[in-house]
Amino acid sequence: VQLQASGGGLEHAGGSLRLSCAASGLIFASMGWYRQAPGRQRELVATITRAGIINYIDTVKGRFTISSDNAKNTVYLQMNSLKPEDTAVYYCNAKILRAGTPIDYWGQGTLVTVSS
Questions:
Q1: Are 92 and 7 in contact (CB under 8 A)?
Q2: pLDDT tens-digit readout, 77-103
């Protein structure tokens, strides 16, 4: 199982960035993005199930959009109106269900830095 994330980088406040994550090896029940800022715990940003059910953390609602291409096993995160507080390492996540128990897979982190 591999999760290959791309995108990220340095952007000014108010700008946009797009993250992509391609998964291989399994068909996942859901995929999404988490982030971890320096000195803080990893937090969920957005998730999307194969059925298209979407969940966002409140702080990104209206600014970030998660989407997926099931045929490509790929998830995207379009980040608009970026704020300095969005600065973090973003991690791609994919879940499968095994006997009803969720199992997590993680991609390598990609750094997003938003300057004020």
A1: no
A2: 999 999 999 999 999 999 998 898 999
